[in-house]
Design goal:
This protein has 517 residues and is an alpha+beta fold. It is built from 12 helices and 26 strands. Strands 5, 6, 7, 8, 13, 14, 15, 16 and 17 form a 9-stranded mixed sheet that branches. Helix 2 packs parallel to helix 9 and helix 3 crosses helix 4. The longest helix has 25 residues. The protein is globular and about 60 Å long.
């Protein structure tokens, strides 16, 4: 069945919309109850706690749970709803094989740091199993191998196999897979896992005190957190908001960029008969594809690019064409995307937020491996708050030296500089009459730059292109009809409404829109 993407963000054939992940569907998130989600209150008073966790995604919920299990009074603050951010859009692979990382770590960080990284993530897999068994969580948890494959570079795979064997990890070389095409080589990791992320998160979150629709606006000295609904005084604070919203100290905006990737879930006769994968798969080539099964769905991911640096391709069409090449009768049922914080040395930042904020902790920069990194964050930060040194914490320290990432630092600095200058340079602008329906452009109005999305013949939406985070110039993403920041990854829908941080407010320009109307 041929699917036709429309400009308004829907596709013919199934009636589903872009952005609607498989995990949030009622029939799969809550198979044994009619209740889709738990209704939680907003904060409505000033309270105190031993620990306040900001962010109720996987990292925040797990950190709060481990601390509460150790007897501390913990509250979680979430500006939307638990699990409504990055977690709901993951492919939910629970694996310590984070692409071809271990040879790179041994060369740049040394064997000790590479071992810490490996063992932390292996321990994270074991911790998931422990919690699932302890709480009796039904979340479709499946133990299976994870593969990183290549179509053309066998030597890279052999180097990685040699590195992981030296670290004592459960991996081996192979050229045999259950993919629908021949690979040159692959590394196979045993006893990795996949699951339904929201079924797991929902079960753990029920054990916690979570205040939803409560936006943190400021953290003052002494552990006083100010929100739009009340305040919390806490001895320790954990920032698990995907991208840290405090610019200084810490300066994480200088130490990370964000990338987007796209996923489609397919069903059909071909999927049932041919897509009999024995595990989870990822191409070592960043422009290749990832694969995993969930019930009678096949999930294919790809189309990665830096947020705000949109290339002229339709990522969803690319995924569809790939699926139809291998499974001609496949049908798209759901399509969505996700965003990840990328660090220069490919290692997350987990630990003290900065050297001058001893009671504030951070978990960010998961480099597309959010499931194990979330658990690693929870284990390390909970130990640190309890005054216990974690044996894996050094490699993840936010204050570590990153000489191996200097080239990426310079590249990011160049992109930021160019984007900041773009807001002030005299460059050609689009004429509003030439912007097609379903497309966007940038116009000049009274000497200022404005982004314009044309929804219908005479219906326009105007935004200021200056990102409210640090002033970079927003770029249009035709894949998702959004305005994205190439510097730090803030995103806004075509109306100008904030989708994701580090920006803290919308970019809708009501004055200009009123003039144009």
């Amino acid at each position: 069945m041929k699917t036709i993407w429309k400009e308004n963000g829907t596709f013919e054939g199934s009636g589903k919309e872009r952005g609607e992940s498989l995990w949030i569907q009622k029939e799969y998130r809550n198979e044994h109850t009619e209740e889709i989600k738990v209704t939680r209150p907003s904060l409505h008073m000033d309270i105190t706690a031993e620990v306040a966790v900001i962010g109720a995604g996987m990292a925040g919920v797990l950190t709060a749970y481990l601390l509460q299990e150790r007897g501390l009074k913990v509250v979680v603050l979430e500006c939307q709803e638990a699990g409504s951010g990055i977690t709901k859009n993951t492919t939910a692979k629970v694996t310590s094989q984070h692409n071809l990382i271990y040879h790179k770590l041994m060369m740049s960080k040394g064997e000790d740091r590479a071992w810490e990284y490996a063992m932390a993530n292996q321990h994270a897999i074991e911790k998931y199993e422990e919690i699932i068994n302890q709480l009796g969580i039904s979340c479709d948890y499946e133990i299976m191998p994870n593969y990183i494959y290549t179509l053309d570079n066998e030597q890279r795979i052999k180097q990685e196999v040699e590195a992981v064997k030296k670290l004592g990890l459960p991996a081996s070389f192979t050229s045999e897979t259950t993919l629908p095409f021949q690979v040159k080589a692959a590394i196979r990791w045993e006893r990795q896992a996949q699951f339904h992320p929201l079924k797991f998160l929902d079960a753990v979150a029920k054990k916690l005190t979570i205040y939803e629709h409560t936006r943190v606006t400021q953290i003052k000295s002494g552990g006083n957190i100010i929100t739009d609904k009340g305040s919390i005084r806490a001895k320790s604070i954990v920032i698990a908001t995907h991208y840290p919203f405090i610019n200084a100290p810490g300066y994480y905006f200088f130490k990370m960029h964000q990338e987007r990737q796209y996923v489609s879930a397919f069903q059909g006769e071909d999927i049932m008969q041919k897509a009999r994968l024995d595990g989870m798969y990822l191409d070592a080539d960043p422009y290749g594809y990832s694969f995993r099964r969930y019930k009678d769905y096949l999930l294919i991911g790809g189309g990665s690019h830096r947020t705000g640096k949109y290339k002229p391709l339709n990522a969803y069409t690319k995924l569809e064409k790939a699926a139809l090449k291998w499974y001609p009768k496949a049908e798209i049922k759901y399509s969505w995307s996700n965003q990840d914080c990328m660090t220069p040395d490919s290692i997350p930042y987990i630990g003290k937020y900065s050297v001058i904020t001893p009671n504030i902790y951070v978990a960010t920069g998961f480099n597309k491996w959010g499931m194990t990194s979330s658990m690693v964050s929870a284990m390390i930060i909970s130990d640190m708050i309890m005054g216990k040194e974690n044996e894996y914490q050094k490699v993840f320290s936010p204050s570590r030296l990153m000489l191996s990432g200097s080239k990426k630092f310079l590249k990011d600095a160049g992109i930021i500089t160019a984007s900041l200058l773009k807001e002030h340079m005299k460059i050609p602008h689009d004429q509003i009459k030439n912007i097609e329906v379903g497309k966007a452009g940038v116009i000049n109005h009274d000497g200022e730059r404005y982004g314009v999305y044309r929804e219908a013949e005479e219906k326009y939406y105007f935004i200021t292109t200056k990102c409210p985070h640090l002033g970079c110039s927003l770029e249009w993403n035709q894949n998702e009809l959004t305005w994205d920041c190439p510097c730090h990854g803030s995103r806004f829908d075509y109306r100008g409404k904030l989708i994701s941080n580090p920006a803290m407010r919308d970019v809708f320009d009501s004055c200009l829109r009123k003039k144009k109307q």
